[in-house]
Each structure stands twice: as C-alpha cells, then as structure tokens.
Backbone:
C-alpha cells in the first residue's frame, strides 16, 4: 500500500478494501518509525488526522467520496491550517497556531483529504537544502548524510521515504523541483497565478507558487486538479476555465518538439547528471519526440536578478514578524526599537537575516534603480527568451539541478554555491512558467537525478502528459531508497 | 519688504465605504478596540490584500469632480506601492499606498480668497492608501495598547500645490475641499471621527523670491486648529529668519493646549520608506466604461440638489435645509416623488419637523431613518383623502411608525384613528356641543371669532380628535349662520 498510486488508493477506499483510518494510521506509523532519522515532519497530530480520516470514511460509506477523499496528504509548514501549529521552519513562528485555513488547505478539506502533518522546510522557504530550519535539517532518504534539497525538503523526503502518498510544497526559485530531483520524486510548480497564495506564508510574492509532490506524474495531475483554480482573495490569482489534467495524460508524444537549451548543459553541470538527462532525452525521442536546440541567452542573469527581487520582496513581507501581535517575542527589551531588534535577531535564522539585509539594501534610496529596477528589466528579458523558445518547441527540457544531493553542511558556509543550485529552476519562476521535475536515473553515490520540464503558460496538462508518457516507458519513479527500516 | 506665506495642504479623506481598502473588514466607527480588525487587517501570516472597488470608484469620482468631469487627470493605470516602516500600529510593517503612479494627477479647487478674490488652487495628485491603527498610551500600566480597528480604513490623500498664501486661504481651501468630498459622497467628512484631516506644508519668503524651506505640520483635524497652527508656524519661521537664522526642514506637531508647533523629526531623521510596487496587487487598471459609469451615477452637487428640490415649490428655507446634504435631499426627493404637488409642503414639514426630531434624538443619519420615504408618501395619501387629520398624522401616527408599529394603514387601523367623515354623525355631536355651550355661541354671534375656535375644539374633543376638521368647520358655520 505504501507504493500504491493515488488512483489505486482511492479505488481501494471506494471498494472498502481498507478504510481511510487504516490508511492514515499506516502512514502515521511510517512517520513515527522514520521521522527520527529523516526529520521530514515538524508537526504530526495523530488524533486530529485520524478524526479527519473517520469523517472521510463516513463520506465514503455514503458514496459521497471525491477523487482524494480519505487520502492522507502532508503539507509544507508554510501553509496555515486552522488549529495547527504553522511555523514556516522558524523560531519566530514557533508558537503560532493559525486561526484560519489557507486556500490550498481548504481545497484539500473540501476534497475530503486527510491532513497527515506539516513538513519541515528551510526557514521561510529560504534555502536549497532544508538545513536552515529552526527544527533541524531534513535528511535525504537515499543517503542520510546528504540533504534532500530545499526548501520543501520535508515534503520531498516524505514522499521518497513513503511517509506520505502525496504532499505539497512551494516554489519561489526551485523549492519544489530541486528537492524533488535530489530526493528522487516528482514535483510540479504550476503557472504563477494558477494556485491561490492565500494562506501561504509569503517569501517573495511575485515568485511564490504552490504545487504538489508525488511519486508519479499521474498523481501530480490528480493533486493539481484539487488545488488549481481562481480565488478572489488573491489578486494575482487567475480566472480561467478549468482544465482536465488527467484526460491529457495518455496523449502520445509523436511530434512533440522538445527544446534543449544549450545554456543548461554547459559549465557547472556534473557529468553524471548530464548523462542521465541525455538518456532521458533519447528515451523521449524513442517515444516520438523531436529534439530542437534552443537558446535562453539571458539564463546566466537569472540567479543575480533573482537574488535582488526575492530578497527585496522578502524584506518587506517578513516585516510583519515583529513580536507585537503573534509569534515569538524577545524576553527582555528596553523599548520598542529594542523589542523589534531583539525579537527579530533572536527569531530569525542567519540565512533569513542575510536576505532581509540584502532586500533592505537593494530597495534603499539611491540603490533602487541600480538593483531592483534593473533586476525587473532582466526578468522581462528572461521571460522574452522563453516566449521566443516556445515559438519553436512545446516543452523545454534539461537538468533540474547541476548536481545530485550534496552532503549536509557542504555548502552552508558559501551562500553563493548554495544559490547556484537553483540556476536551472529560477528562470521559470522569473517568467512565471509551469515546470516539473521527475526522476530520470541515478548519479554518483546512487543518488537520484531529476529531469526538468518547463512548459508554456498554463501548459500544465502538456507537461504532465510528457512526464506520464516518459514514466510509462521507464521505472525510475518507482525506485525507492533502500535500508530505511 | 513684507513676508509671503506659502502653504500646501495634504489632506487625508476617509472614503465613505462599508469595508476597508484591502479587506472585507468593517469601517464602522467607535467599536471596542480590535473588534473591527480581521485576519487581513491584523496581518496574519499568509493573508493577502484585495483592492476595494467602491474605494476606487470614489477616488475616480473625486478626480472627475475636481476636473469638471474631464477624465484626463485619471490615470488609467496606477500602481499600489509599499511604504515600509516599523511601528506597532502598522501591522504589516508597511502601508499600502500609491507612490510613483497615483490614481489622480491634477485637478483644481476653486476658492474665494479674502485678498485675491476668485482663484483656483491646483491639485498635484490624489492617491489611494490604507490607514494605520492607533496606539493607546493610557490605561495600560506603562505599556502601550494597540487598536487595529482603523488599520486598513480607505483613505484618499489629496495633495495641493503650494498655492495658498495665508492661513485664511488654507482654511477656505480645506472647507471647499471638504464640501466637495461630502457633496459627492466620496467622504462623510466627520472631522471628530478623523474622517478628514490635514497636514500643512508651510514656508515663508520675501515676495518674488524662490520658495523657502518648508516645515510640515501633521494631523490638523479641525479648521480652527489648522488656522492657529499655520499662523503660529509662519510667525515662528519669520522670527527665525529675521533673527538671521535658517529654517530646518522638519516635521512638526501642533500642540493644541499650548498653541504652538514643535519638532517631531528632522529631514535627517526621516525614514527611508523603501517604496516598491506591491507584488500582491496588480496594477490598478481603470476602464473608460467604469469612468463613465461613475460620473453618470454621481450624487448631485448642492446646486443640482437645490434646483431639484426647488421644483416642488416649498419655502426657500426648507429647500436649503433639505438640499444641505446628499442624504437628506435623496430622502426628500424620494418622498416627494409622484406626490400631488399640494401635498409636498405637508411631507416637507414632516421631514423637517417630527422626523428630524426623532433622527436627532436617536443620533441617526437620515439614510437610516426608521420611517422610509414611501411610508411618508402613503401617510400623506391618508391625510389628503381625509382618513386622518394632519395633526393626528404628526402627533400620533408618525411616532408610532417610527416605533415600528407598521405602515400608516396598519397604525390607523390598530389605533382606531380613522377620522369621522360621516356628516350626520358630526352634526349630532355639533348639536350636543352647541346645546351645552350657549355662551360661546352667543359670543361668536356677537362677533368674537375666538369663540368659534373654542367650539371647534369642543367638537374635536368630543370625537377624540377623529372628526374631519374641515367638515366640523363647515357644519359649525352653517349651524351658527353668521
């Protein structure tokens, strides 16, 4: 059952082969057994989860079940859920119990899914290794000395270790796709505006997008179907006709034009990752796809532009964490300024403080034009690169991350090395495009390699179709880490 | 050479919307602290702003009103920006405002200056923003309390060019601006509720010289204080300059009790607000259709209201009273609609008499009146068709309707107020009254008109006020035959 697809689980529930309570308890047991080793979850609440499972079973008994009714889903601890501790991996929210549900949580509740727990993450989603959490680093199920990627590392590790059949994450610069790649699971960042950001703790508002983690593209399609859709509470949410992500899955790939950007295969790409991606491209050709060499000439500017825009927005978004109304407040302070200073110095970790400082600097009087405005111009250039590319191809494919998972602690002292992890994923955020990562083999140390697929705006159905066809022909996504028990 | 005072005003007008600028929270005034602040207003993690359409429409209407209906000063695309600073009454750590591209650019307010006659004061801009909350420094044992009810209240900040030349001109400008805002129902204008407050930028110069260094006086929430503060500030600056000193650009606060301004912070101490476009909000795009709709459905101006009410041929003093506010004119025009012209004065008297007394008594705005215009029309019908007398309508039926006893017919029925119009019945009573009041009959016949009124009174008393007064008059006159 741990390896079953969401479709199989739903069928099993519908046919009463097992109940949602049994299913939920199975995964709760798995979490109990493995979380000590992996630290993938921050909060687990058995009683609450089983209560939800019981309600789901009642719905199933009345034949009122929908696609995900009774299925446990783990959520990144960046989504607020009513009466659940929601920490965002930070000390400053370590006592914050949310009085309301995020849009995404509401959607899963309406679908009858069970909230299995809140997953660990880089503090405020700032990081590519899930090491910056106040709750300690998440470990990679394939090699516990390695990072699972980040920032949604808890969700990725939970899927890889079969602690949850489905999970959610957020992706600002690669925070779904990069951990999916490093942990050997599937992850999707939808088009900006497809999933409401209401109730998702903001990191960089113009880049943040929620998306699903699962074992297969087919499962991703089922999950996306639940969370996609207009929400009037998010002004950047887009109102458009609902798509059927499942129906498109079985379309054959003949005639598919796969754009291969030369900029994503150059210096910095580890040979083991490059080889696995090449093999995947060959496999797609076998399935009828055509390779089209493309250029993304402004690719190299994406990391610097991102590290201006994202910290700028973050420096403002994180101002609300001041100790005045909720969250952590320093114990001793002499006056208001001292309360702010100590609360924020004690409440935020090093990487968050670094980004607040960068963001404050680039928005300062006299620097705004040189940094922020310039970065916005680069952002437009990068989006234009993709617009040009999509005139010649249907999907852009390359590596998700330049290397396989690295050792815990290896890059913590060198933020720039850490930032370069997201060199291939950041452009899709800057352009607002949908992108996915799926397993496509193994590299050095038997660690998973991710294949990165970028689609045109709202082409999620096409992306999932390509991924699903690839997964029908390969079994990389079925592999699971050994030696966990 | 004499000194010239140069003043520009920045006015914060609270937009008269039911909900806040970026949330569905209520804008109700005077509620217990923090009861009008929702998840968005208190800036819980994960919440997002959504611009209030009604507030945007009011800003558009203002822009049109200060430009004679010409929409060329309305920016079809304006940008919400974040103004970043830390303060406990600012829950997000930034205020959402407009910076580089405001919704309104340009326009003018005509005023009559005591020294310069009819002039036009140009507006630099008007932009949408949200208000902050309030810090409470008393009753918290050395700590400060925060009330976030005001947080998120929609404001239109209206900035004038530095074209005002005296405290008097500044007051006249502020009053004209206030009247226009209230006239168009852009702002309710209650200054004691902080719905209209001004900051004054004051500088002085010798005539013909370039602009001097200015000081900004914050939060002037009454016309009188504004005048005092500007006068004090101009005098202070002139004294410094005449003593050979220099004006330091700074923000100053007016102390009402001491009648003086004092420094709050200098330019060097000013915040770097790090404005940038709010990524949570898309650019505010305004369509031609919306502009047309807003202008077409605008409330009438005072002159338009006056003209509309004057058509009903009621005394000028009443026209003025009813036209005074958009709410009262709307109410009156609704009540007068379809009413036979001779009935209008009666209804007008009701509105300005008993109804207005009740509204004052319960401190209600006329738009919240418990007796609605259509009910007044229905009651007027009953007076004109003789079912009840005007005095019983005023003294008894209206108050009963106010107290929720129902519509006019229901009240008349329940209270048995239908007047006696059966002339046979009235004649019988008249005969009885005449029989026992021989002296008044004689007095009347002897030429004393007062005696007649007394006889009418007796008949009314005998019928408990239900006899039709016109009929009583007629029958009495016939019987007394003078």
Residues:
């Amino acid at each position: 059952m741990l390896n079953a697809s969401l479709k199989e689980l739903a069928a099993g529930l519908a046919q009463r082969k097992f109940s949602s309570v049994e299913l939920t308890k199975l995964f709760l047991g798995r979490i109990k057994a493995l979380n000590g080793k992996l630290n993938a979850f921050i909060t687990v609440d058995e009683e609450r989860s089983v209560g939800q499972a019981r309600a789901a079973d009642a719905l199933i008994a009345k034949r009122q079940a929908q696609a995900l009714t009774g299925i446990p889903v783990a959520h990144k601890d960046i989504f607020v859920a009513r009466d659940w501790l929601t920490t965002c991996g930070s000390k400053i929210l370590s006592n914050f119990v949310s009085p309301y549900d995020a849009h995404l949580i509401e959607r899963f509740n309406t679908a009858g899914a069970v909230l299995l727990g809140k997953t660990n993450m880089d503090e405020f989603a700032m990081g590519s290794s899930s090491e910056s959490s106040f709750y300690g680093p998440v470990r990679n199920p394939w090699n516990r000395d390695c990072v699972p990627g980040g920032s949604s590392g808890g969700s990725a590790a939970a899927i890889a270790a079969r602690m949850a059949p489905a999970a959610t994450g957020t992706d600002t610069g690669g925070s779904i796709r990069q951990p999916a790649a490093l942990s050997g699971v599937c992850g999707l960042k939808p088009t900006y505006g497809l999933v409401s950001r209401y109730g998702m703790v903001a990191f960089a508002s113009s880049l943040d997008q929620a998306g699903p983690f699962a074992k297969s593209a087919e499962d991703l399609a089922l999950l996306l179907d639940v969370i996609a859709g207009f929400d009037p509470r998010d002004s950047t949410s887009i109102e458009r006709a609902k798509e059927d992500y499942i129906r498109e899955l079985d379309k054959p790939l003949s005639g598919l034009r796969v754009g291969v950007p030369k900029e994503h295969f150059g210096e910095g790409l580890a040979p083991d990752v490059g080889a696995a991606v090449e093999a995947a491209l060959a496999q797609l050709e076998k399935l009828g796809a055509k390779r089209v060499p493309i250029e993304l000439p402004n690719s190299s500017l994406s990391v610097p532009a991102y590290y201006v825009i994202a910290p700028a927005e973050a420096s403002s978004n994180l101002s609300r964490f001041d100790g005045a109304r909720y969250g952590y407040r320093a114990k001793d302070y002499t006056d208001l300024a001292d309360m702010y200073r100590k609360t924020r110095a004690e409440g935020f970790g090093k990487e968050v403080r670094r980004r607040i400082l960068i963001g404050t600097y680039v928005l300062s009087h006299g620097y705004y034009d040189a940094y922020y405005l310039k970065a916005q111009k680069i952002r437009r250039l990068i989006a234009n690169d993709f617009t040009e590319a999509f005139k010649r191809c249907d999907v852009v494919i390359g590596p998700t991350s330049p290397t396989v998972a690295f050792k815990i602690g290896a890059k913590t002292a060198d933020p720039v090395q850490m930032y370069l992890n997201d060199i291939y994923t950041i452009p899709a955020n800057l352009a607002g495009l949908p992108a996915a990562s799926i397993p496509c083999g193994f590299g050095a140390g038997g660690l998973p390699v991710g294949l990165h697929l970028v689609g045109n705006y709202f082409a999620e159905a096409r992306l999932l179709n390509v991924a699903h066809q690839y997964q029908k022909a390969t079994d990389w996504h079925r592999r699971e880490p050994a030696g966990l028990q | 050479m004499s000194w010239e005072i140069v003043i520009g005003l920045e006015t914060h007008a609270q937009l008269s919307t039911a909900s806040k600028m970026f949330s569905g929270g209520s804008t109700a005034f005077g509620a217990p602290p923090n009861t009008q602040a929702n998840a968005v207003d208190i800036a819980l993690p994960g919440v997002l702003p959504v611009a209030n359409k009604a507030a945007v429409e009011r800003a558009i209407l203002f822009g049109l009103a200060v430009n004679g209906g010409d929409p060329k000063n309305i920016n079809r695309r304006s940008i919400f920006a974040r103004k970043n600073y830390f303060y406990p009454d600012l829950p997000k750590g930034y205020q959402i405002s407009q910076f580089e591209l405001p919704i309104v650019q340009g326009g003018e307010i005509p005023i009559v200056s005591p020294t310069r006659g009819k002039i036009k004061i140009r507006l630099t801009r008007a932009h949408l923003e949200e208000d902050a909350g309030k810090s409470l420094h008393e009753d918290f044992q050395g700590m400060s309390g925060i009330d976030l009810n005001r947080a998120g209240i929609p404001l239109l900040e209206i900035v004038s060019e530095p074209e005002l030349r005296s405290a008097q001109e500044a007051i006249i400008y502020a009053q004209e601006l206030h009247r226009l805002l209230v006239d168009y129902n852009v702002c309710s204008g209650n200054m004691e509720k902080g719905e209209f407050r001004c900051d004054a930028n004051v500088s002085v110069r010798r005539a013909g010289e370039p602009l001097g260094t200015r000081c900004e006086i914050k939060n002037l929430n009454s016309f009188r204080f504004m005048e005092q503060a500007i006068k004090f500030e101009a005098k202070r600056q002139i004294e410094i300059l005449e003593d050979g000193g220099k004006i330091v650009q700074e923000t100053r606060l007016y102390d009402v009790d001491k009648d003086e301004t004092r420094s709050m912070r200098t330019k060097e101490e000013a915040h770097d607000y790090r404005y940038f476009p709010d990524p949570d909000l898309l650019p505010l795009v305004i369509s031609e259709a919306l502009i047309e709709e807003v202008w077409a459905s605008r409330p009438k101006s005072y002159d338009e209201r006056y003209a509309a009410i004057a058509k009903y041929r009621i005394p000028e003093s009443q026209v003025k009273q009813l036209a005074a506010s958009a709410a009262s004119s709307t109410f009156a025009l609704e009540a007068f609609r379809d009413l036979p012209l001779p009935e209008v004065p009666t209804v007008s008297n009701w509105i300005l008499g008993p109804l207005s007394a009740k509204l004052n008594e319960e401190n209600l705005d006329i738009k919240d009146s418990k007796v609605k215009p259509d009910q007044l029309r229905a009651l007027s019908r009953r007076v004109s068709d003789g079912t009840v007398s005007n005095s019983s309508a005023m003294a008894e039926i209206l108050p009963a309707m106010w107290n929720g006893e129902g519509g006019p017919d229901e009240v008349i029925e329940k209270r048995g107020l239908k007047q006696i119009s059966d002339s046979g019945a009235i004649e019988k009573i008249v005969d009885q009254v005449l029989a026992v009041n021989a002296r008044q009959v004689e007095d009347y016949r002897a030429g004393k008109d007062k005696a007649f009124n007394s006889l009418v009174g007796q008949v009314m008393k005998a019928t408990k006020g239900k006899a039709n007064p016109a009929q009583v008059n007629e029958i009495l006159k016939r019987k007394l035959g003078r």
